[in-house]
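To fix ideas, we quote verbatim one protein's residues and fold tokens.
>
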Amino acid sequence: MRILILHRISDKLVRYADGIDHMAHDVTYVGTADRLAMLPSGLRCTLIERPGTGDTAAEVLAAVAGLSPFDLVIALSEFDLIAGAQVRAALDVPGDREADILPSRDKVVMKSAVAAAGLRVPRFLSLTEALDAESCELPWAGETVLKPLDGAASQDVHVYPTPAAALDTIRDRGVPEGTERAGFEIEEFVTGPIIHVDGLLIDGKAVAIQASRYVGTCLGYVDGTPLGSVQIELTPELSQWTMDCLAAVGITTSLFHLEGIETAEGLVFLEVGARFGGADVVDTFELATGLHLPSRFLQMITGGTDAGVELRPDDAGSRYGWFVWPGHQLGGEFCRIDGERVFRESSLAHRWIQRSKSEPIKTQLSYSDADVPLAGIVGPADSAELDRFLRDVFSFVRVELADSKELSHAQPTH
């Protein structure tokens, strides 16, 4: 099989060699120079660099022009799903087209499909529709959220006290710089704990599913507060809700990351992506189930294995969680961390990654362990114990910008 991969995600996370038999298949990776450098050396494959400055699909098509036809096009990053579909269409390769991807990328198309399936979603309108209507005609009152249609990691998401306040502010100040009003939606703010459900489907059948509940929120993380999640029981009701949501948006053979809001009246759909979850979702999933999501998915779509998947049975006392501490709001590249020792030395600290005062952090938003001041995995334990542990970490640990005096002592001298 000739396989084309739109390569963006680190091989450390995907494990391409575990998922694809590179001796049996001819594999071509197209990516920017820094992304290609993350692939292991010695892998039997073709590497083609693209500039990374223009349209992804156009750059990939230019990179492979004149090559023999491909049998499969793979795009694992949420930022490449649409581009992957466009490349398939242009090269006449079987697989999802853009119309198939939109219900798991465009939040208006997504929620419309889920609502049409009879599942509860936040009441919503495209921003264009909302601005054309009078605020008093909008079908909800109270807190209102502005979101990009294809946004990720809660970037450019804003919450306003009422629909009228949202629309008045947008009319006065516009949407975030560099974007168009047509690229946004507004929706009612539904209050409640947020869960995420992750897993793998093949031909509409679940290979593996794991449910978790957030500690903190993705929106709070953007504003500078830590975020984590702990694995919880996948009840029959939650499992059925998950399958109903996936069917509604047409996800049948894919990894998935689904989010919902727990309310007194039941679950409310929030969003879904045809991808694996970020932060340390993949690692905690593997710890709990024995299955590594990205590589197993690649195995199954490239014919690497026909064997059934043997998952570890769910054990209430053997669940895991992850946490990540943002650094993008600190205002500098170096930080000071205090109050963490008792937690770092706890038996629940399965993995603890902490920057020293002399190690720079990324000043842009990131969920990667390598970029942030503090991150880790906790467990094994039951859900309640993990939840308490993370809340204590978030309450007592302090991450602050290191001052120049501290840095002068921390930096090596020459």
